[in-house]
Inverse folding.
């Protein structure tokens, strides 16, 4: 039953085999055994896809309910102190996922020695087909768009307006956000393309600026490094630019102004039952992650 449900959720036998850590022939053999046992054809096989038959649709819904019920019974029998085991597949943003999130991840693995984690770094904010991709949960920067996900905010990240000192050998230093429109820009396409809303921390004034970026990238490190090279102005997470500002490689432009803070969420699909590995990860991240955001916020350039 589990193999059949995983085939349907994953969309192919090959994807199901990968998620179940087995081979495609093994998955095919299990499906044939199930169909033979039931005396039913569950899937229609085409060149490029698998389609549920009418019997397959009925079985899929019933099997999912049975598997959830069994997981619930198993969890109750093991008790609330069940130690998680197995592999957890997590999606995290590239920059944050290889920097600030590694310490909490290491603590989770230390706390639960029977766990292993697949730590997938991806900046595509539209990648939310969790089931088909075999993803258990995601750490997501920015407001989530998928209403079918449980979204728990665990912090937020301040952003700074930055530029290389070399840029102002050929351009005047901006005195107001309106001056930024006359400068070349590097856009971080996952969060801004050709316009930004900026707010003054002292007066509360809000203004919107528009610009034509000379470079667009979906990677925070690439954006920062391009700005260091003098390609243009950028807006990035404060934590990633602090050292370069301290070393004089970057200038924090208009320190009384900034773009809105970016919220950070834990995302995972709605379900009636969550396995211990996911429940414990969610609990650990809720406990550990808020603490790493306060130091980031406290270091924001003024």
């Amino acid at each position: 039953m589990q193999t059949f449900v995983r085939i349907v959720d994953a969309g192919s036998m090959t994807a199901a085999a990968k998620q179940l850590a087995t081979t495609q022939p093994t998955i095919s053999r299990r499906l044939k055994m199930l169909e033979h046992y039931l005396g039913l054809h569950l899937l229609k096989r085409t060149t490029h896809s698998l389609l549920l038959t009418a019997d397959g649709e009925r079985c899929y819904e019933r099997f999912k309910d049975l598997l959830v019920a069994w997981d619930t019974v198993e969890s109750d029998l093991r008790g609330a102190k069940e130690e998680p085991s197995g592999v957890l597949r997590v999606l995290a943003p590239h920059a944050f996922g290889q920097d600030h999130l590694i310490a909490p991840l290491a603590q989770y693995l230390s706390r639960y020695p029977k766990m292993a984690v697949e730590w997938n770094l991806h900046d595509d904010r539209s990648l939310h087909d969790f089931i088909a991709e075999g993803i258990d949960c995601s750490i997501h920067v920015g407001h989530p768009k998928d209403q079918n996900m449980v979204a728990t905010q665990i912090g937020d990240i301040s952003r700074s307006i930055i530029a290389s000192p070399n840029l102002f050998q050929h351009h005047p230093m901006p005195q107001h956000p309106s001056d930024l429109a006359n400068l070349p820009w590097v856009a971080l396409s996952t969060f801004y393309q050709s316009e930004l809303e900026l707010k003054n921390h002292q007066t509360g004034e809000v203004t919107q600026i528009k610009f034509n970026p000379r470079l667009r990238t979906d990677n925070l490190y690439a954006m920062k490094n391009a700005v260091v090279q003098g390609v243009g102005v950028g807006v990035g997470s404060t934590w990633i630019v602090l050292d370069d500002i301290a070393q004089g490689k970057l200038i924090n432009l208009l320190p009384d102004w900034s773009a809105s803070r970016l919220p950070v969420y834990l995302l995972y699909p709605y379900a009636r039952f969550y396995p211990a590995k996911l429940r414990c990860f969610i609990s650990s991240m809720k406990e550990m992650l808020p603490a790493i955001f306060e130091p980031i916020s406290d270091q924001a350039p003024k």
